[in-house]
């Protein structure tokens, strides 16, 4: 074992500059993969942590032996939501909520740090006066994100706020009627669950190409060494020793890469905390996966790379002469494309009814999205091979012919390079249309307070009294059918004088109808807009990750292609082939499929988003333009990295079998 | 310039005079004279490190000698720039190496057609011309096969076709049978020498194998960067 390691180390160090370059490329690939893998894993953990921090606020079902009453409401200040949890103890010894040292006493308010700051900064008449006196600050266990506005208000069990019912806003779980409970909820609320499901999907979308790409990188490092290992076999190394040496080499490289990736990820955390989801960034500690996960990733990545290396080695070990036979790959069947066509046809048929189905429609849409992703991934290599055959058929120049033959020869490798951008193009196309749905269209100066119809007139009078000094018009709207508060009348207060006047009116109205908070139509729209904005943020994050994968992959694939063919390239160069022909072929074999596939998936994304399009917004156009510029620029740049490599491998005047 | 005069056939195609080349402190060539006549086949032999490959690289315009001159059909080529020498190699020379010279993703006929296309022949004509080489070299039916689907000997015959397809003046071969068994090696040398002669080209073969050198008209021994007393070929 000691000899094997020693020999491995010598081979690794003594492999020459080109092999060192290859090892460095593999290391970079593993580092990027590890960093992104950590990100994909941690995103799930971070959302789980958020779900935990959110769970206790939702009272859940009434308990059999209740010790306290919990209610949830959502107020607003400057258009931002404030989560208000009302708590009343029924017995002494009611459990302290998460993030608090004790159960709040009646008449005291505990706030999040962000809310405390805001209460200090704004005049009391705009915010602080809505709550009882501040008694303490909530710890982070109670908070979803650092900037969250949360108030926990202690009340007596008999307080009207703890007995009156609540009206709930449509679809968003930000209001809950007072409930007698024995303990705080711990399971994720449905809305947090949706986020967790979405982030799980996003992780899969990020992790699957990562694994494929990482495995390919591992195998390519082995391919590089085929001949030298075959030589080792010739001088009498046993298959076991050859496997051990190569695996050790791959594992050492991968371990270094995994470590570098972890450092990379840790360095990126401060930037990652600024990704805004559900109205706020992240606690840095939420984005650190913790030692067990890091240890598992650090152990698993080298093992996976090693296993992949062993798989790639079988060929060399079987034959000491290392004759790498290359045969015409079996043609891939058109079924792959038919599948994509079928998914698209089914979607076209179903899309008309989807928007009317509400939540079920969303689920069906997500399923279709997943299917479309899978189908694109299946159809990809087939289409790349087809593009290759067309390129070959039309080729007039040697460079075009070489590029086309490369695509036909190994469509999967070309697909790996462009897959990220192709799939991303799908997302970008999708977002381009969704981006048109702009928010902030509803009134933000009209506060609405729902009341039982028989009390409407009295409440309106009371409201007028409270609004002394605020320029506002009060009216009563009779109960309307449909909508979340179907059997309630609505007292509307139209405030003139901007956002601070609205906040003063909100403060003045606090507690007018116990348990009911005055909200504007814009507030109510906020929940839906938030979800849409979060979807867009999430998709953008996946977009950035796909770009990173695509660009790294383009660099690695390009360099490996050069390294794999360095003998043939060197010979061609010796025989007088101009470097620019080889270079043009190298460039075209990436750019041709990129143009076709990137454009094609963009169109597919646009097609799928079409039923939801409100309009082709300016932000959508910007997203698209940015996609095209960054995608093509990044990939062309990464693939240009292999140009000096091509020059160096072909500059060697005396090609040897290495 | 001492030593034997670079004598060859009546009209030398390729001549090297006083070729010298050093890599750092190591002397690879130390004043070599060599002339290759029309349709002549010359073997350059010598142990490893004798400078035989460097000689080939200098003669073929791959490398520029530190001193001395190389002439092809009366034109001096060693002083040309890399671009001109590159064009020259592509149009006037052909190359056969030990292995790894065929592009694995190209069918055999396109490997042969590639140098023609690089020289500006339209693809259709280039492939048509390439195909004519397959029958005479015993490769009938292999046109669409890819290098991975060919045996070592077949691959070398495709390489011979590729070297000869642009109708070169001189074919350079560096250990052309190095990766082949003896019988296949002999067959390859027979085809290489015959086809070269038949196409009015000269042949320069670098080898350390006397049985390969026997196929040539003449053998030049290189040792420590100098040409030893020439001995007549045994063919």
TrEMBL record, chain A:
GO cellular component annotations of the record: plasma membrane
Membrane topology: Multi-pass membrane protein
Keywords: Cell membrane, Membrane, Transmembrane, Transmembrane helix
InterPro entries, per the entry: ABC3_permease_C
Location of this chain's protein in the cell: Cell membrane
ABC3 transporter permease C-terminal domain segment(s): 201-314
Transmembrane segments: 20-47, 204-222, 242-267, 287-313, 334-354, 360-392, 413-437, 539-563, 590-610, 616-638
UniProt name for this protein: ABC transporter permease
Species name: Actinomadura montaniterrae
UniProtKB/TrEMBL annotation, chain B:
Pfam families: ABC_tran
Keyword Metal-binding: no
Occurrences of domain ABC transporter (ranges): 14-235
Superkingdom: Bacteria
GO molecular function: ATP binding; ATP hydrolysis activity; transmembrane transporter activity
GO terms for cellular component: plasma membrane
Coiled-coil region(s): none
Keyword Nucleotide-binding applies: yes
CDD domains assigned to the protein according to its UniProt record, in alphabetical order: ABC_MJ0796_LolCDE_FtsE (cd03255)
Keywords: ATP-binding, Nucleotide-binding, Transport
TM helices/strands, residue ranges: none
InterPro entries: AAA+_ATPase (IPR003593), ABC_transporter-like_ATP-bd (IPR003439), ABC_transporter-like_CS (IPR017871), ABC_transpr_LolD-like (IPR015854), MacB-like_ATP-bd (IPR017911), P-loop_NTPase (IPR027417)
PANTHER family listed in its UniProt record: ABC TRANSPORTER RELATED (PTHR24220:SF685), IMPORT ATP-BINDING PROTEIN (PTHR24220)
Protein name: ABC transporter ATP-binding protein
Organism for this UniProt entry: Actinomadura montaniterrae
């Amino acid at each position: 074992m000691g000899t094997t390691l020693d020999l491995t180390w010598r081979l690794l160090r003594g492999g020459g500059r080109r092999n060192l370059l290859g090892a460095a490329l593999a290391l970079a690939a593993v580092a990027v993969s590890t960093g992104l893998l950590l990100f994909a894993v941690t995103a799930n953990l971070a959302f789980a942590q958020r779900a935990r921090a959110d769970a206790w606020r939702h009272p859940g079902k009434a308990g059999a032996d209740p010790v306290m009453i919990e209610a949830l409401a959502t107020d607003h200040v400057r258009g931002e939501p404030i989560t208000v949890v009302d708590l009343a103890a029924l017995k002494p010894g009611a459990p302290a909520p998460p993030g608090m040292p004790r159960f709040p006493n009646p008449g005291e308010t505990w706030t999040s740090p962000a809310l405390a700051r805001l209460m200090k900064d704004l005049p009391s008449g705009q915010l602080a006066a809505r709550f009882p006196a501040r008694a303490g600050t909530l710890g982070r266990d109670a908070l979803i994100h650092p900037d969250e506005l949360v108030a926990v208000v202690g009340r007596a069990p008999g307080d009207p706020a703890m007995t009156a019912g609540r009206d709930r806003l449509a679809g968003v779980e930000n209001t809950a009627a007072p409930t007698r409970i024995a303990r705080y909820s711990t399971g994720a609320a449905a809305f947090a669950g949706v986020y967790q499901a979405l982030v799980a999907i996003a992780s899969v979308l990020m992790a699957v190409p990562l694994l494929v790409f990482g495995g390919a990188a591992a195998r390519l490092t082995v391919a590089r060494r085929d001949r030298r290992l075959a030589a080792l076999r010739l001088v009498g190394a046993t298959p076991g020793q050859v496997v051990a040496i190569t695996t050790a080499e791959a594992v050492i490289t991968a371990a270094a890469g995994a470590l570098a990736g972890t450092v990379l990820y840790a360095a990126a955390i401060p930037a990652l905390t600024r990704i805004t989801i559900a109205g706020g960034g992240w606690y840095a500690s939420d984005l650190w996966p913790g030692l067990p996960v890091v240890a598992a990733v650090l152990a698993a990545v080298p093992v996976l790379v090693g296993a992949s290396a062993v798989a790639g080695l079988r060929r060399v070990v079987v034959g000491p002469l290392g004759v790498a036979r290359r045969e015409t790959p079996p043609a891939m069947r058109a079924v792959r494309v038919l599948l994509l066509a079928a998914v698209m046809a089914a979607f076209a048929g179903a899309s008309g009814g989807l928007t009317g189905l509400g939540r079920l429609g969303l689920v069906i849409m997500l399923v279709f999205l997943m299917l479309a992703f899978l189908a694109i991934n299946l159809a990809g290599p087939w289409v790349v091979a087809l593009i290759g055959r067309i390129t070959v058929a039309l080729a007039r120049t040697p460079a075009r012919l070489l590029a086309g033959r490369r695509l036909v020869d190994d469509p999967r490798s070309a697909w790996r390079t462009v897959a990220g951008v192709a799939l991303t193009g799908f997302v970008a196309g999708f977002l381009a249309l969704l981006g048109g749905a702009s928010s902030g269209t509803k009134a933000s100066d009209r506060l609405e307070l729902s009341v039982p119809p028989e009390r409407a007139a009295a409440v309106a009078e009371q409201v007028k009294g409270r609004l002394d000094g605020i320029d506002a018009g009060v009216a009563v709207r009779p109960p309307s059918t449909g909508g979340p508060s179907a059997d309630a009348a609505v007292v509307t207060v139209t405030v003139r004088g901007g956002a601070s006047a609205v906040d003063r009116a909100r403060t003045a109205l606090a507690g007018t109808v116990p348990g009911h908070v005055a909200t504007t139509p814009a507030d109510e729209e906020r929940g839906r807009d938030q979800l849409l904005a979060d979807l867009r943020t999430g998709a953008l994050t996946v977009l950035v990750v796909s770009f990173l994968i695509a660009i790294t992959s383009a660099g690695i694939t390009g360099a490996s292609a050069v390294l794999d063919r360095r003998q043939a390239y060197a010979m061609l160069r010796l025989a007088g082939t101009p470097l620019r022909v080889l270079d043009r072929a190298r460039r075209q074999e990436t750019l041709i499929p990129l143009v076709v596939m990137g454009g094609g998936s963009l169109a597919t994304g646009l097609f799928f988003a079409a039923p939801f399009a409100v309009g082709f917004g300016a932000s959508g156009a910007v997203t698209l333009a940015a996609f095209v510029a960054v995608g093509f620029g990044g990939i062309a740049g990464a693939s240009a990295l292999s140009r000096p490599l091509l020059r160096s491998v072909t500059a060697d005047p005396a090609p040897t079998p290495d | 310039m001492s030593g034997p005069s670079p004598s060859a056939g009546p009209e030398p195609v390729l001549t090297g005079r006083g070729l010298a080349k050093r890599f750092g402190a190591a002397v690879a060539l130390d004043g070599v004279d060599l002339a290759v006549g029309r349709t002549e086949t010359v073997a350059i032999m010598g142990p490893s490190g004798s400078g035989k490959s460097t000689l080939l690289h200098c003669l073929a315009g791959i490398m520029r000698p530190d001193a001395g001159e190389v002439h092809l059909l009366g034109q001096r080529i060693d002083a040309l720039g890399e671009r001109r020498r590159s064009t020259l190699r592509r149009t006037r020379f052909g190359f056969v190496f030990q292995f790894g010279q065929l592009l694995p993703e190209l069918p055999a006929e396109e490997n042969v057609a590639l140098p023609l296309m690089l020289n500006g022949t339209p693809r259709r004509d280039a492939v048509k011309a390439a195909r004519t080489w397959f029958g005479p070299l015993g490769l009938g039916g292999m046109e669409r096969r890819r290098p991975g689907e060919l045996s070592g000997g077949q691959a070398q015959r495709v390489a011979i076709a590729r070297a000869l397809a642009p109708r070169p003046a001189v074919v350079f071969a560096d250990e052309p049978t190095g990766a082949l068994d003896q019988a296949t090696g002999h067959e390859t040398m027979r085809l290489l020498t015959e086809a070269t002669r038949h196409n009015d080209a000269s042949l320069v073969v670098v080898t350390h194998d006397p049985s390969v050198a026997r196929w040539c008209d003449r053998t030049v021994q290189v040792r420590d960067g100098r040409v030893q007393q020439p001995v007549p070929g045994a063919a």
